[in-house]
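Q: Please design a sequence for this.
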């Protein structure tokens, strides 16, 4: 998993991710859901959450940025 490089990749090309807008909520109860984060969809909400990644495009950008040969298709 390449979470940190993906964050940089999205900063370079935001279209690499599919995002949803809404309001994030963190469960602070003392239950088995404590810490769970959920997104309440709202087109005018203050948060954007990446819900999908174009992995092939990201890996191509990653390889190109590092001067590596292209990754073979999965």
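A: Design:
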């Amino acid at each position: 998993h390449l979470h940190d490089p993906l964050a940089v990749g999205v900063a370079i090309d935001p279209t690499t991710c599919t995002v949803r807008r809404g309001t994030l909520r963190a469960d602070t109860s003392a239950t088995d859901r404590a810490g769970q984060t959920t997104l309440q969809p709202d087109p005018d909400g203050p948060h954007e959450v990446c819900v999908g990644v174009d992995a092939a495009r990201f890996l191509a950008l990653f390889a190109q940025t590092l001067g590596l040969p292209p990754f073979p298709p999965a």
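Q: Thanks. Anything notable?
A: The chain is about 30% helix and 30% strand. The mean pLDDT is 92.
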